[in-house]
Write a structure and sequence with these properties.
Blueprint: E1 10-21, E2 24-32, E3 43-44, E4 47-49, H1 57-60, H2 68-75, H3 82-96, E5 101-102, H4 115-128, H5 133-140, E6 143-144, E7 150-156, E8 165-173, E9 187-193, H6 195-203, H7 211-220, H8 226-233, E10 245-246, E11 252-253
Parallel strand pairs: 1-8
Antiparallel strand pairs: 1-2, 1-4, 2-3, 2-9, 5-6, 7-8, 10-11
Helix pairs in contact: 6-7
Length: 278
């Protein structure tokens, strides 16, 4: 039977926030609301679809250390690449209360002390659509710290999924003078975990994660510190798009796996199903 038209993958960005702790490198994971229509209960990195405003020339001009031409070259697109960096910064603030931006002195902005309530109000207004990121940045005299984000991954949701995303992955060191706070709307919890511990929790069925999150954590697990991780990922020049496919038996296949090519055909493709542990 011929399937209906597939939804076009939406451009999206996600940022893997990392920090150094006494027992090693930690990564931030947010837990999505169980009532969400997409990935309910999953542990994810902050991220989401691009907004039209993310590509505005005004916001691009407020980015530090990167322009659209350089960003687009890094992503292998003709134009509009910087919007992905901007979206990653915006989503990080909306979902996790982490704002990668410089203040007037050139330091990463502090969201503690007297600034706490002010930025809490900004975040709420941004989430509700009452204000845009550009207005917040201008009002606070900030510049977006695009140079703090390192691009390292590109995943596309398999065909058959109810929602599909074409997602660029970034990594950034979490600022010291900012405290993570999930939004209690899209996300209901958060945790700083060593990558190996998060993977162990996933194998035990305690932490639900999708394949891109699992594979990203596997990449992170071999690095001893945040700076070492960022430095290593920053040397990558060729970042191919990864498009998993679903076999007839429901197995998720990666490029190069046996049966991957067959799963790309109408006859060989399986149905999207949420599996145990996801």
């Amino acid at each position: 039977m011929t399937r209906g038209a597939e939804p076009t993958p939406l451009p999206a960005a996600t940022v893997t926030l990392v920090r150094d702790a006494a027992h090693g490198l930690e990564v931030l994971l947010l837990q999505r609301n169980f009532g969400s229509g997409f990935m309910p209960g999953m542990h994810v990195f902050p991220g989401g679809a691009l907004d039209a405003a993310d590509a505005s020339g005004e916001l691009c001009a407020l980015c530090e250390g990167l322009d659209d031409a350089a960003a687009s070259r890094a992503l292998g697109v003709a134009r509009g690449g910087l919007a992905y960096w901007i979206a990653a910064i915006r989503e990080s603030f909306e979902e996790a209360n982490i704002l990668l931006a410089y203040d007037a002195s050139g330091d990463i902005v502090s969201l503690t002390g007297p600034a706490t309530q002010r930025f809490r109000a900004h975040r709420r207004a941004l989430d509700e659509g009452g204000i845009g990121l550009e207005a917040i940045v201008r009002k606070e005299g900030l510049r977006l710290a695009a140079d703090r984000l390192t691009y390292f991954g590109h995943w596309i949701t398999p065909a058959g999924a109810p929602r599909r995303y074409d997602t660029r992955f970034f990594v950034a060191v979490a600022p010291e003078l900012q405290e993570v706070a999930h939004d209690n709307h899209e996300t209901i919890g958060h945790a700083w975990l060593r990558p190996a511990d998060a993977l162990d929790g996933h194998r035990r069925g305690e932490i639900k994660m999708r394949l891109p999150t699992v594979r990203t954590l596997e990449q992170l697990a071999d690095h001893a510190s945040a700076q070492a991780l960022v430095a290593a990922l920053g040397t990558r020049r060729e970042i191919p798009a990864i498009l998993p496919r679903i076999a007839k038996d429901g197995t998720r296949l990666m490029p190069g796996d046996p049966g991957y090519e067959q799963a790309g055909s109408e006859e060989g493709r399986g149905e999207w199903k949420v599996r145990e542990g996801e």
